[in-house]
From TrEMBL:
<dbReference type="Pfam" id="PF00196">
    <property type="entry name" value="GerE"/>
</dbReference>
<dbReference type="InterPro" id="IPR016032">
    <property type="entry name" value="Sig_transdc_resp-reg_C-effctor"/>
</dbReference>
<keyword id="KW-0238">DNA-binding</keyword>
<feature type="domain" description="HTH luxR-type">
    <location>
        <begin position="144"/>
        <end position="209"/>
    </location>
</feature>
<dbReference type="InterPro" id="IPR001789">
    <property type="entry name" value="Sig_transdc_resp-reg_receiver"/>
</dbReference>
<keyword id="KW-0805">Transcription regulation</keyword>
<protein>
    <submittedName>
        <fullName>Helix-turn-helix transcriptional regulator</fullName>
    </submittedName>
</protein>
<feature type="domain" description="Response regulatory">
    <location>
        <begin position="4"/>
        <end position="116"/>
    </location>
</feature>
<keyword id="KW-0804">Transcription</keyword>
<dbReference type="GO" id="GO:0006355">
    <property type="term" value="P:regulation of DNA-templated transcription"/>
</dbReference>
<dbReference type="InterPro" id="IPR039420">
    <property type="entry name" value="WalR-like"/>
</dbReference>
<dbReference type="GO" id="GO:0000160">
    <property type="term" value="P:phosphorelay signal transduction system"/>
</dbReference>
<dbReference type="InterPro" id="IPR000792">
    <property type="entry name" value="Tscrpt_reg_LuxR_C"/>
</dbReference>
<dbReference type="GO" id="GO:0003677">
    <property type="term" value="F:DNA binding"/>
</dbReference>
<dbReference type="InterPro" id="IPR011006">
    <property type="entry name" value="CheY-like_superfamily"/>
</dbReference>
Length: 225
């Protein structure tokens, strides 16, 4: 079955370039195009698997509109973020992936396939590294400690792999466990972190400092061994 993709873009040249790229992929079908104002009606009519939203049709300031769209389909947002924290905000409202406008065509295709498969391609590696350097905020330490204590070592490994955009199958292969086990781990991670999507879990893990804490714990265990 082909991945049905709807493109939300206000610029005709960008839309044409997007169609030329996606039409070359044997497993992707472009169902149509819409402007920012037409996006909600287009999703209702075309029922895409994934919607590519290209700013400025809708951007990081349009949180209400993006949240409404994210509740109905999987959103891949292409927007220039002023900071990594802004991208985290988009993930927290349900956007599945945030890409910079200068991302490669290969990056976009990989993200579409990964998101369509149910996994979360959060952000490119460079953005993830910048998230790890976010300044701490009041309350982070206690919240991080609480979440870190609740996650098992295997669940911590799972959240790290989700942040890398791994699908369930890829996580299962990486950890040498079954798909059913991976689904169970993901369910427990979401429940313990009080979120409903993987993107939200990963965003909170970075924003609270949990991801950095997991990294430090992993290094400590390695030194112990």
């Amino acid at each position: 079955m082909k991945i049905r993709v709807l493109v939300c873009c206000d610029e005709s040249i960008m839309s044409a370039a997007m169609r030329a790229l996606l039409d070359q992929q044997p497993d992707i079908e472009v169902t149509g195009f819409a402007t920012g104002r037409e996006s909600a009606a287009a999703v209702a009519e075309m029922a895409p698997h994934v919607m590519i939203v290209v700013a400025p049709a809708l951007g990081l300031d349009d949180k209400r509109e993006l949240a409404e769209l994210a509740a109905r389909t999987k959103i891949v947002l292409i927007a220039k973020a002023e900071s990594a924290h802004r991208s985290v905000e988009a993930l927290c409202i349900g956007v599945r992936a945030v890409l910079a406008p200068d991302s490669s065509a290969d990056d976009l295709i990989h993200v579409l396939r990964t998101v369509s498969a149910g996994a979360t391609m959060v952000m490119p590696a460079a953005a993830r590294r910048s998230l790890q350097r976010l300044p701490e905020r009041p309350g982070w330490t206690s919240r991080t400690a609480q979440m870190a204590a609740e996650l098992t070592p295997r669940e911590s490994e799972v959240i790290v792999l989700l942040a890398q955009g791994k699908s369930n199958a890829e996580v299962a292969e990486e950890l040498s466990v079954s798909l059913a086990t991976v689904r169970s781990h993901v369910h427990h991670v979401l429940r313990k972190m009080g979120v409903s999507t993987r993107a939200q879990a990963v965003a909170i893990a970075y924003e609270t400092g949990l991801m950095a804490a997991i990294g430090r714990t992993t290094e400590f265990r390695g030194q112990e061994g």
